[in-house]
Design a protein that fits this description.
The chain is α+β, with helices and mostly antiparallel strands and 227 residues long. The chain folds into two domains: 67 residues, lambda repressor-like DNA-binding domains (434 Repressor (Amino-terminal Domain)); 103 residues, Jelly Rolls (Sandwich). It has five helices and seven strands. A hairpin with an 8-residue loop joins strand 2 and strand 3. Helix 3 packs across helix 4 and helix 3 crosses helix 5.
Length: 227
């Protein structure tokens, strides 16, 4: 057998043709980490935390009532440890709920909020002014991160206001009109298609309304109160 024939004989046949390929996970360009499967421990901890807040109890309050250390209670709520049945029974008794209620969150649900065109809820947001209309386009159903997407319309009678200030981050995407938007000590001119992402702990808001009426998308993201 010559060298070429020997090489061909030692080469394994190509089995890829006609064979089904393993499904590939479709990824976006986001840097967000992959979603972890929801474990029983995390589900229990989340449910206990929600029930505790509903009773206006702190972590130490619930730990004391259940005769569990505050450190262990904190680890149970964050899903870091597997609580014993006796601990869960004590927690349920302290919360005045059946122990089965602690497992209610294990049946996984993923948030989804669907709002049809022109059906967003018109709300009075903190610090809103005359001529500033806020239309809420969706809401988070649960979890520790709050997301508030608004379609904001500034009508012809609207006036500038640069004293908005709140926790979290805000993203603005300009749809119509023209505005000079202040964030802290800087001013940005926003035209349709322009965007602005900023720390909303600094004072901010439209400083000069150059073309009205004006509309822009505002998405506010912040941590839900953990107390």
């Amino acid at each position: 057998m010559n060298r070429k024939a020997k090489s061909l004989a030692e080469t394994p046949p190509d089995m890829s043709q006609g064979a089904e390929e393993a499904p590939q996970r479709l990824l976006t360009l986001s840097n967000a980490p992959p979603s972890d499967a929801r474990t029983l421990e995390r589900a229990l901890g989340s449910q206990i935390r929600q029930l505790r807040r509903r009773h206006n109890l702190s972590v130490s309050d619930l730990a004391s009532a259940a005769q569990i250390s505050t450190g262990m209670m904190s680890k149970i709520e964050t899903g870091q440890i597997s609580a014993s049945l006796s601990s869960l029974q004590s927690i349920a008794a302290a919360l005045s709920v059946p122990m089965s209620a602690l497992f209610a969150a294990f049946e996984e649900q993923r948030d989804c909020s669907h709002v049809k065109a022109d059906q967003g809820v018109i709300i009075e947001r903190r610090g809103s002014k005359v001529g500033h209309i806020y239309q809420l386009l969706g809401h988070a159903l649960g979890g520790d991160i709050m997301v508030e997407p608004y379609l904001i319309t500034l009508q012809k009678e609207a006036e500038p206001y640069t004293a908005f200030q709140h926790a979290g981050r805000e993203f603005i995407y300009m749809l119509t009109g023209l505005v000079d938007y202040r964030h802290g000590d800087k001013v940005y001119r926003l035209a349709p298609g322009d965007s602005l992402l900023f720390d909303s702990g600094a004072m901010h808001g439209p400083e000069a309304l150059l073309e009205l009426p004006m509309t822009y998308l505002s998405i506010i993201v912040y941590q839900r109160d953990q107390t």
